[in-house]
Design goal:
The protein starts with 9 loop residues before the first helix and ends in a 62-residue tail after the last strand. The chain is mainly beta. It has a four-stranded antiparallel β-sheet. Keywords: Hydrolase, Protease.
Length: 164
């Protein structure tokens, strides 16, 4: 199996970050880009996105598969079946500190991630015999010394007030 035939790394990264969140006592959240393939309560979708709590306490029958994330959850007391294609997940992160990972947003009309050909890389041709040189530092004695950056305005010293 070569790189073009390999499966997406997204479901593996989602599972790894889910495990990291739960091992550290964090609440894993997934941000999902909603379209017709996503089965979520539409009344909670804002700007075409929904954030779902996928912690053990918030879900039942959670399955983090290679193609779909499936679980049951309660929304305003009503049990709902949730099914999210993995390629619609745009982020997974811990609620408490925001640490996690964001994924590329799928482009409308583009083929799915698994069938999309990888971009070709080209090596620049060696037609320039001498090459280009970029000077990063000015030679000594070349110009006037650089000016010092302006100092930030100083105000009164910060203080805390004790409230009982």
């Amino acid at each position: 199996m070569n790189a073009l035939e390999s499966t997406s790394t997204r479901p593996y990264l989602i599972r790894a970050l889910y495990e990291w969140c739960t091992d550290n006592g964090f609440t894993p959240y997934v941000a999902v880009l909603v379209d017709d393939t996503v089965q979520v309560p539409r009344e909670y979708v804002k700007n075409g996105e929904i954030v779902l709590n996928i912690s053990y306490d918030a879900t039942s029958s959670l399955k983090l598969g290679n193609e779909f994330i499936e679980f049951k959850a309660r929304f305003a007391g009503t049990a709902r079946e949730i099914m999210v294609p993995v390629n619609r997940v745009i982020a997974i992160y811990a609620r408490e500190n925001g640490q996690g990972m964001a994924f590329p947003v799928p482009v409308p009309g583009a083929p799915p991630e698994e069938t999309r050909p990888s971009p070709l890389t080209s090596v620049p041709a060696a037609t320039d015999a001498e090459g280009k040189v970029v000077q990063l530092v000015t030679p000594e004695g070349g110009s006037a010394p650089p000016e010092e950056p302006p100092r930030p305005p100083s105000g009164p010293r910060p203080a805390l007030k004790r409230v009982k």
